[in-house]
Amino acid sequence: MANQSIRFESVNVGDELQPVSVPITVPLIAGGAIATRDYFPGHHDRDAARELGSPHIFMNILTTNGLVQSFVESWAGDEARLMDLKIRLGAPNYPGDTMKFTGSVTEKNEATRSVQIALKGSNSMGSHVSGTVQVALA
């Protein structure tokens, strides 16, 4: 099913994106690491993660990056095109937690028909990811 695209003309600076909650699970973390060819043991082996001082396996940056992209694209729609994505990591994502994405439109560029989204993904320990995404709209 196609995702209805947001029109550039209908977006204003200050608009809030619908918050999205992502359950953090072992399959999400391990599957994301394997899909991105990140075989670091801390992303799929609980014993190895504990040897590193971590209570459980933890999400890799490429999985986080994909979740950020999905958050913005689900808001913007099928006709949108990501132009730039900049993120910073904070607290790790561990299984059994939930990450809640929030975001808002902070800039609007008429020349490129694009908007900048400032976003944050937080879990029970605080900010897991923050950053900006520039997305061209229909």
From TrEMBL:
Pfam families associated with the record: MaoC_dehydratas (PF01575)
Taxonomic source organism: Comamonas brasiliensis
MaoC-like domain residues: 17-115
Highest taxon of source: Bacteria
Alphabetized InterPro entries for the sequence: HotDog_dom_sf (IPR029069), MaoC-like_dom (IPR002539)
Protein name: MaoC-like domain-containing protein
